[in-house]
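Appendix B. Chain record.
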Amino acid sequence: MSPARKTSRSANAYRCAECGWTTAKWVGRCGECQQWGTLEEVGAGGTAPRTSASRSVETPARPIAEVDASVARFAPTGLGEFDRVLGGGLVPGAVILMAGEPGVGKSTLLLDVAATFARGDAGDGGARGTVGARGGSGARGDAEPSGARGSGSHEVLYVTGEESAAQVKLRADRIGAVADTLYLAAETDLGAALAHIEKVQPGLLILDSVQTLASGEVEGSAGGVTQVREVAASIIAEAKRRNMTTLLVGHVTKEGTIAGPRLLEHLVDVVCQFEGDKNSRIRMLRAVKNRYGPTDEVGCFDLLEDGIEGVTDPSGLFVSRTPHPVAGTCLTITMEGRRPLLAEVQALLDESSTAQPRRATAGLDSQRTAMLLAVLQRRAGFNVGKLDCYLSTVGGVRLSEPAADLATVMALASAAEDKPLPRRLVVFGEVGLAGEVRAVPGIRQRIAEVARLGFTHVMVPSSPAGVGDVPEGVTVKEVASVVDAVDTLFPARSAKG
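Structure tokens predicted for this chain:
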């Protein structure tokens, strides 16, 4: 082997911490994932590992049957919708990352959680801070004066890097989130934040936000890949060592993804996405990742001037209240996690003034809408291909599951016929390219929700096993295709055909 080749194999290289791309020379930007500041110097392949086994360990390994799992039980926060998404409450030592667009209400929600946890108001089982579907507010725990310490109070540390302590105090006074054991620190230095943790010894830590803290021992500016990785690793290590529940606030990019390295989502235990339209008060909290509970649960909140409240029964918030039936509207039942929600699809068809008809959607997938238009024209004989099509949902809700297909098709058919559907009718089912209506999960649960809300007719996909026991006062119509649905709702059209 030549000396030159031996030198090249033992020379150091640089590897991207995000995607693993390697290069012989250092560059500021990764040539594969285009991230800045992610290249780290590593040894060439084939070298021996530099980390050796420790001579002693603090906590020896023991049989799994001897591990005490009681220390990792859920602790309710007092906000029922928040506990629903987490799977039951806060787990000691868990690290939760909450992301959302600016102004959606992340800081308001977490400040409310911090005050409730600090006062020890979680024992009410989540009854505090809930509103019903019709907007009636529930109790906000005003029986205890603001700032009073409950019998089950806990130390909570709220570290803010985006606002001053006075600004956070103003918001806390406005929403009634003041407690004696809620400590506030405005810091942008990671070392200072760790010192506050050492002094307060909190049971709950809230860091707002992880992109604003920076360590003086690591190169790069706050929010960079290297700094975010260092801040997250240090905070997570403290949380696990102290058995301290930690809530991290994360920024999002313009594409809607969590800013920073993808490693951040892998390190934390729970990742929650806080969503909402700025023109609406309704906010939805979804669990994207959850090591302690389901990832299909959704929490609904109402953002008010004096704080944020959970909505225990959101059905009806996404439905218009027109005094008379309107053509082009259809009600459906969508499953948000394991919760059925009533939603409304609205369609408007008009003659196009251009050679290329316009397709506009809000709250629905545009590509799936184009497919449903083609199915309606080809399979059911509606001439809608040359018409401008506008589709929207009510209340800013986003319908992403295929169960809303049949309601979308019926709304389009109603708009094309200019005839309203029955007011007490709810429609759901998945539509295929052949015009067939496929079964969807949770048919019985959806029918039960229809009966609970007072509707009398429901159109569902046909199934060999049937729909089971039907609640009293509800008439179920099973359809196998879009043609069957059109013939049922528009008998005059089928008679003409």
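Further analysis of this model is presented in Appendix C.
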